[in-house]
């Protein structure tokens, strides 16, 4: 088996494993649909993995020549850009509450404050 054939076989195996991981994550998220705390934990885990891979393995693998760097940048541009995990803005989260009447929103925060006060007293 030539080096090129070996490289292509390894690449196919990597892509297959990556697809499997993606399917597992989708299934995990789907199984917790409606459970905002579990989904938030999943998002935090993915963000942590992104940062860990970027700060360790990816940085160590960066090219050491101009030609290799140019090739990497060209591939990044052609493949859709730099991977980025977008964080939901608080404003986007608060739009979920727009349908509630002002009194309902006030009662949510009032319950939250009274619960905190009771916990503080205990």
Protein topology:
Elements: H1 3-31, H2 36-60, H3 66-78, H4 90-94, H5 102-121
Written description of the protein model:
The chain is mostly helical and 122 residues long. The protein has a domain at 88-122. It has helices spanning 3-31, 36-60, 66-78, 90-94, 102-121. The protein is elongated, with a radius of gyration of 23 Å.
Any descriptors?
elongated; mainly alpha; 122 residues; disordered C terminus; 0% strand; 5 helices
| Inertia-based shape | elongated
Mean pLDDT: 82
- Rg for CA atoms: 23 Å
- Beta content: under 5%
What structural category arises from helix and sheet content? Answer: mainly alpha
How many strand segments?
0
Helix and strand run = HHHHH
User: Low-confidence runs (pLDDT<50, min 5 residues)?
Assistant: 114-122
Condensed summary:
With 122 residues, the protein is an all-alpha fold.
